[in-house]
Amino acid sequence: MTDTPENPYRRHLLKAAGVFTIMGAGSAALPGCSRQHSGRDRPLAFSEIPHLLDASHHLPEGYHADVLLRWGDPIHTDTGTFDPATLTAAGQRQRFGYNNDFIAFMPLAGDAGPGEADRHRRSTNSERGLLCVNHEYTLPHLMFPGYDDEYSATRGVSAKHVAIEQAACGHTVVEIEKTARGWQPLLDSPYNRRITLDTEMDIVGPAAGDPRLQTAADPSGTRVSGTVGNCAGGKTPWGTVLIAEEGFGGAFQGDPDAIADPVEARNHHAFGIVPDNRNWGDHDRRFDIAVEPREPNRFGWMVEFDPYDPESRPRKLTTLGRFEHEGFTLVSKPGRRVVAYGGDDDEGQFVYRFVSAETYHPGAHATNRNLLTAGTLYAGQFNPDGSGHWLPLVFGDGPLTPENGFRNQADVLVDARRAAALLGATPMDRPEDVETNPVNDCTYVMLTKNKRRAKDETEPANPRPRNAAGHVLEIVPPGMQGDRDHTSDSFRWHTFLLGGNPNAEDPDERGAYGQQVTGAISPHGWFANPDNVAFDRAGNMWIATDGCEGFGFHDGLWAMATEGEMRAAPRHFFGCPQGAEVCGPEFTPDGTTLFIAVQHPADGGHSTFSNPLHRWPDNDPALPPRPAVLAIHRKDGRTVGS
Ligand code: FEO
Ligand code: CA
Ligand code: CA
Ligand code: CA
User: Fold this and answer.
1) How far apart (Å, rounded) are the C-alpha atoms in residues 58 and 573?
2) The domain containing residue 569 runs over which residues?
3) Cα 435 to ligand 3 centroid, rounded to whole Å
4) Is residue 195 a part of any domain in this protein?
5) In the 8-state DSSP scheme, what is residue 66?
6) Which residues have CB under 8 Å from 639's CB, separation 6+?
């Protein structure tokens, strides 16, 4: 591997040479973000479930899950019952999409109407709200009959299938209400809407209008049709929802080397655009880079929209850079600049931070709503000695100059990966959710795995070669608990845990958790491949996984304290049906309901529409397996987890 921006490990390691072995895997879970107790400590007290692998979902005793929304469920009163055999794209636009991922619960004030958006934005109601859900990608072999021939999504693809797939991606807003019969969608709600690849959006921020974003359909470079690859996201205290565009490269087809412009060829290679992919471009020409070589530059952004305004037009925020966004989560303190943290979910990619130019003032919706359109994006450098720096992605600074191919700030943002690598950011083991614990004010980075990291490419922040199980880092900004300065350009970091079996023979595969020497972790308490994360009101961390089947058991949820004796000692709370991963854990404000997204159930092992591994959650021979959102609550109505 040579020292190039495209192969960034070596560049970073050369910079780090000489101070390499100070912190190893043994530092997992020590020392803490804070030794202070929050005063809100509430030990986790559910009965753990075992590691399993079957066709069901599993919860601790005393808990119940409502199946709230499934792929194809109507979101309007006149939509009708779901029938996969007669589904059309127009019908799909009226129905819950496929492969649910990120979930935001946005409260609705109990006594306010649709015209009172500002009252809703201030609400902390936990019994009525808008469920805002991403739909990451489609699996045609599980959605449509006729793909059974060797699991091939490209075989027999038709324009009709492509149109349905495009309508099944994106986002759904549905009003939901807690009733005596559990959580229910309200199909007559004026808020209910789908966002798909047909939804008109604006492009805002420094890259808007740049020639690299201009196409035949949009010579202005400021308007784009739709969003795709919508993985995780975030929400803002001014009541908007952030949708990430992650694996957008898979929507495009074509040979990057056949593009006349070498800058775009390199760019398209970096996002995995290849001649075959999903063959959408055969039927929708804008997804063929030979026809529209700049269309991919209009994807790979964060999208913001206002669910409290059903007519609102989503905006792509070019300030937050272009890469395979997992999501961006906010730290918003009154009178301070807003900070947002995000990850680029690919092997060897970077952790990012954004700091707004203007300050946040609660209730000032008209100005707050533009906070993410101006500010500075930074990439993270995790030094071997436990210090860290945020490196600004600013045109003209350091190597971000015309000599290195950057004409302006638009180039820096469109090619954020290349800019971050040139600055010396640390290549990480697939950064997924990066989220701040509201109780201890430290930030946690889920690093899901990186099987491509070689032994001589390990370093303290990514300490394992062929990292199959992933790990979690803790970022500690300067300052005291409750008043840490997330705008500071320096921080400390610790290894919070290393995923995997704590008893694995190979030290490179061995998991490391808090308290493991005292036996505080049960045989079911360990996990692998942290992906999404949420914090409950007591500051406990709830990690959703994607990849545990590679270790012989289902993906699911594990909960743990971040402070005190039980810091980083996970307990197993939820297990998925086989083939699925868990996404989007999200609590109601009062912590009595936990929403989760079960994504791609029954996928894998040549499972198909006609002959699936199982048919969760309906278990109806007339229906395929369906991705679904569950609403989990305690039968006694008390706080989940406690
Ligand atoms: Fe879509 Fe990063 O998982
Ligand atoms: Ca994810
Ligand atoms: Ca999260
Ligand atoms: Ca995932």
Assistant:
1) 8
2) 8-84+97-106+158-247+300-634
3) 6
4) yes
5) E
6) 42, 536, 537, 590, 591, 592
**Bond from prior residue into 296 cis (ω within 30 degrees of 0):** no
| Phi and psi at residue 326, to the nearest 5° | -80, -45
Q: How far is CA 571 from the centre of its chain?
A: 22
pTM, whole model, 2 decimals?
A: 0.95
- The beta strands (E) that lie in 551-613 are given as 556-560, 571-575, 581-587, 593-599
For residue 354, which of 372, 367, 370, 368 has the smallest C-alpha distance? 372
Degrees to nearest 5, angle at CA 436 with 336 and 117: 65
Which atom of ligand 1 is the closest one to the Cα of 343?
Answer: 2
CA angle 495/496/499 to nearest 5° reads: 95
Ligand with the closest atom to the CA of 546 = 4
Long-range (24+ apart) CB contacts under 8 A made by 86-90 are 87/164, 88/160, 88/163, 88/164, 89/160, 89/163, 89/164, 89/166, 89/167, 90/167
Cα 601 to chain centroid distance, Å, stands at: 18
pLDDT digits (tens, 9 = 90+) for 67-111: 999 999 999 999 999 999 999 999 999 999 999 999 999 999 988
CA proximity to 96, closest of 146, 60, 52, 131: 131
DSSP state at residue 53: -
**330 CA distance to ligand 3 centroid (A)?**
11
263 Cβ contact list (under 8 Å, min separation 6) = 405
Q: What's the N-to-C CA distance of the chain in angstroms?
A: 49
- Tokens 């003032």: give the residue: 361
CB-based contact 59:73 (threshold 8 Å):
no
Question: Which residue has a Cα nearest atom 3 of ligand 1?
Answer: 231
Instruction: Measure the CA–CA gap between 338 and 236, rounded to whole angstroms.
Output: 10
In a domain, 280, yes or no: no
Q: Is residue 484 part of a domain?
A: yes
Q: How far is the C-alpha of 410 from the C-alpha of 319, rounded, in Å? A: 9
| Nearest CA among 9, 191, 35, 178 for reference residue 116 | 191
Please give the backbone phi and psi of residue 117, each rounded to the nearest 5 degrees, phi first. -60, -40
Residues with CB under 6 A from ligand 1: 136, 231, 246, 326, 345, 432, 531
Please tell me what DSSP assigns to residue 355.
E
**What is the C-alpha to C-alpha distance for residues 259 and 265, in angstroms, rounded to an integer?**
6
Task: Cis check for the bond before 31: say yes or no (omega within 30 of 0).
Answer: yes
- Extract the tokens encoding 440: 């201890």
**Ligand 1 atom having least distance to the Cα of 247:** 1
The answer to whether 354 and 372 are in contact (CB under 8 A) is yes
pLDDT tens-place string over residues 368-417? 999 999 999 999 999 999 999 999 999 999 999 999 999 999 999 999 99
The count of domains in the chain is 1
pLDDT band of 148, cuts 50, 70, 90: low
Residue 415: how many CB atoms within 10 A of its CB? Answer: 27
Per the domain annotation, does 276 fall within a domain? no
Which listed ligand is nearest to 345 at the C-alpha? 1
| Total H helices, total E strands in the chain | 9, 30
Tens-place pLDDT, residues 247-287: 999 999 999 999 999 999 999 999 999 997 778 998 999 99
